[in-house]
Design brief:
The protein has 461 residues and is of the alpha/beta class. Helix content is 47%, strand content 15%. It has three domains: 58 residues, no CATH class; 132 residues, Rossmann fold (3-Layer(aba) Sandwich); 164 residues, 3-Layer(aba) Sandwich (Rossmann fold), CATH 3.40.50.720. It contains 18 helices and twelve strands. The structure holds NADPH dihydro-nicotinamide-adenine-dinucleotide phosphate.
Length: 461
Amino acid sequence: MPTLDIKKENQQEIGANQYVQFIFEEVQKRNPNEPEFHQAVKEVLHSLIPVIEKNPTYMKQGVLERIVEPERMISFRVPWVDDSGQVKVNRGFRVQYNSAIGPYKGGLRFHPSVNASIIKFLGFEQIFKNALTGQPIGGGKGGSDFDPKGKSDGEIMRFTQSFMSELSKYIGPDVDVPAGDIGVGAKEIGYLFGQYKKIRGGFEAGVLTGKGIGYGGSLARKEATGYGTVYFVNEMLKDQDLTFSGKTVVVSGSGNVSIYAIEKATQLGATVVACSDSSGYIYDKDGIDLSLVKQLKEVENERISEYANRKPSAEFFEGCQGIWSIPCDIALPCATQNEIDEISAKILVANGVKAVGEGANMPSTLEAIDVFQQNNILFGPAKAANAGGVSVSALEMAQNSARLSWTFEEVDQKLEEIMKTIYKECVTAANEYNAPNNLVVGANIAGFVKVADAMLAQGVI
Ligand code: NDP
């Protein structure tokens, strides 16, 4: 990336605004056809203008030019053989985005939509999220356009082993530590770990997180992202003298994050009335029966529509967007990126939503976030609100290093404390930079400053 000549001819320094604009334009030029990546960068850079104004060193040392460029982007062939003997080829990715404060850390996503743009947006966000956790972890992300839906266990295992055969060259407990994400749960992590162990010929437990409890996994990791999102939203509510108790909640998705967000919100006294998958959503006026959702999704690998066949109080609706037209006090988007657009945000506001907490990564479009903020809706951005998963992943790494296992209660308590601290840091940063109640700005700034200062300390590398 060309660096910006920060002195104009008249020797007057350019402003932070111009600097940020220049960097964003360069990102667009150098990464064409990557809309999700542009969206994630735009949101962060825009928040940083006041930080650059206050600390021009970041501009003089080219911190933004460096932070938007991944340290390494690996793309590789993943050949495998399906059950009928046919050779298939998928594409694998790993972005090692930033290692200023620790080894690269971030999940692996297996979904047909995966491409360089998605992986880079997720990796870029991960830098700031990981810094917010207060743990020594850098930013990374990876995955493949492999679609696990409809594949046999044998096919998933063979694909996953082939994926790891290549990925293993680039990762390690002190280098890069992947975990799960969409389409990568306990089963896939097990196969990935087995293949890594076979290749290395040693038991390096800390190379992956989200492992099974019997071979180095942490209790409460499975629950951590969903629980953490609810803990974060609970802090936002508390500041307004509100609680989850008695509130109506809508949660999108019915995967790992959604299931445990539903569980914790229900434990705190809320009624969750809807959840979804990529084919549609269910509305259960009596409140979601979570044991049935777990049975369908964690055991039977069923579609969410089956819920309505088994529970007379529920209805199934095709399509994902309609879930946001259900009146609710609290909305927790926990499925995927850009699932709440401007129109859905307006409908949520018109129906009286009080708080939105992002369990998924970048589930709200930039226009939707504007709608929430203009209407003073409490808004917990993904970087902060869903940081519980990676926080407990870092606790898993700590347990692996110490060869210890903490109890569920110990981990859950640490998780809640971490989420409270993240909330406070976001509020403090937002206030310091004259954006009270703007947790988007607060999260971006609090995360950025930690990473940027470490980058300055380590020189131009
Ligand atoms: P899962 O694969 O367990 O679940 C994903 C859920 O979202 C499924 O119900 C899935 O439905 C639905 N979904 C996926 N893609 C789409 C789509 N294009 N449209 C509508 N629904 C969709 O993934 P996770 O729960 O792990 O991840 C969910 C989100 O949370 C992602 O944004 C992820 O990046 C983020 N996240 C996850 C963390 C974790 O610890 N797992 C940590 C931090 C963030 P279907 O089964 O039909 O595809």
